[in-house]
Design a protein that fits this description.
Layout (H helix, E strand, L loop, with lengths): L14 E3 L3 E3 L1 H14 L12 H6 L45 E2 L4 E2 H12 L15 E9 L3 E6 L7 H12 L3 E3 L5 E4 L4
Antiparallel strand pairs: 1-2, 3-4, 5-6, 5-7, 5-8
Length: 192
């Protein structure tokens, strides 16, 4: 249920959008319809798939303007952030603005993957011991799938922390929730 109201001195009716504040239904419909075109710049991401925007844009008809992200769009919904460094390429301060490629089942960026390979080899390109992500380790994760069953799985790729392990399980395996009985350090990725 949407609560519409009038603003004194302004014609028309308005409502309060949870993301963008007070706006008219017409402005909401325009945002919803133009969201797929502006997703590369990071604008209007909250309007993708919005039920209120869909209703304001014409309700049941889904013909010309369907507010879904185009294939290959670089948004957090269409292409999530790197699980290790948490960068998405959408920050203005990042040198990876726009197109950021994620590899290994869309879990980590190329830069983090290269640092991981250095840790597993035990040396970087200059032959020195790697410093960045030197604390990578393999671990076991307990998780819930299908609302009842619980499994304990050993991750086949090294992780930096328990947050990365949980995000990895959620993204790759489609589990419903992740929990840890113990931190469970299985073995270091590389011991020097």
């Amino acid at each position: 249920m949407i609560d519409y109201f009038e603003v004194p001195g302004m014609p028309g009716r308005y409502f309060t959008c949870a993301r963008y504040g007070t706006m008219s239904p017409e402005a909401c419909a325009r945002n919803y319809q133009s969201a797929p075109d502006t997703i590369r710049s990071g604008r209007l991401e909250a309007c993708l798939g919005c039920a209120i925007g869909h209703r304001h844009a014409g309700g049941q008809e889904r013909a010309a303007h369907v507010a879904v992200a185009p294939a290959g769009a670089t948004s957090l919904r269409a292409k999530p952030a790197c699980l290790r460094c948490r960068r998405s390429g959408r920050e203005r301060s990042s040198r990876l603005i726009g197109r950021m490629r994620l590899i290994r089942e869309h879990t980590i960026c190329v830069s983090c993957y290269n640092r991981e390979r250095e840790v597993l080899r035990g040396k970087n390109a200059k032959g020195a011991p790697p410093r960045k992500w030197a604390g990578l380790y393999f671990t076991q994760v307990s998780y819930v799938k299908n609302a009842q069953a619980r499994w304990r799985a050993t991750l086949t790729v090294p992780v930096l922390d328990r947050i990365e392990a949980a995000l990895l399980m959620l993204r790759r395996n489609g589990v419903q929730s992740v929990y840890f009985a113990a931190p469970g350090l299985v073995r270091q990725a590389h011991s020097t």
